[in-house]
Amino acid sequence: MSKRRLSLLVWTFIALALAACAGSPSSTPGVVTVDILFLNHPPVREVLTQVDAVLAAYGDQASVTRYDFDTPEGAAFAKQKGLTGHVPLAIFVNGSQTFDVNGRKVTFESFPQGAGTGMVPDGAWAVADLESVLQSIVKK
């Protein structure tokens, strides 16, 4: 086995191990774990800018891990979470993607409301919903 192939195998194993741990609920009270799986394309980057602004307010109270869907680590994370098909964006908070926000079920997948494209419709969530979930966990 070539050195390059062995190195790739080792890094893939490490990424899979990290991905398996990343979805675990946060064990530190007041700290939230956020895993973001994304397609690194212009419309998604615009949404990530909005998500980043929300996350920045939490500083060290938020542990954020990003997975580019087009990398081996991102593909492994997507597989672990059971995501298939064209998913431009998926956000997991303490390992979960679906939450009750103000009496309605919200799943952080696809584009938020108002940010969809002609090819991919809006999801049924808003960036404010993410803020609400983070606030409830961190008690900010």
Please give a structural write-up.
- This protein is of the alpha+beta class.
- The protein has a single domain (3-138), classed as Glutaredoxin (3-Layer(aba) Sandwich).
- Helices cover 41% and strands 19% of the residues.
- It is built from 4 helices and 5 strands.
- It has helices at residues 3-22, 42-56, 72-81, 127-138, and strands at 32-38, 62-68, 89-93, 98-101, 104-107.
- Helix 1 runs parallel beside helix 3.
- The protein is globular, with a radius of gyration of 16 Å.
Q: Share of helix among residues?
A: 40-55%
Count of spatially separate domains: 1
Tell me the radius of gyration. 16 Å
**Form type:** globular
Low-confidence stretches: 5-27, 115-120
Strands of the biggest beta sheet: in what spatial order?
2-1-3
Strand runs, count: 5
**SS element count, helices:** 4
**What about the largest sheet?**
3 strands, mixed
> Please, what is the average pLDDT?
78
Beta-strand content? 15-25%
N-to-C series of helices and strands? HEHEHEEEH
Q: Assign the structural class, choosing from mainly alpha, mainly beta, alpha/beta, alpha+beta, or little secondary structure.
A: alpha+beta
CATH homologous superfamily descriptor: Glutaredoxin
In CATH, the topology is named: Glutaredoxin
CATH class: Alpha Beta
The second-level CATH architecture is 3-Layer(aba) Sandwich
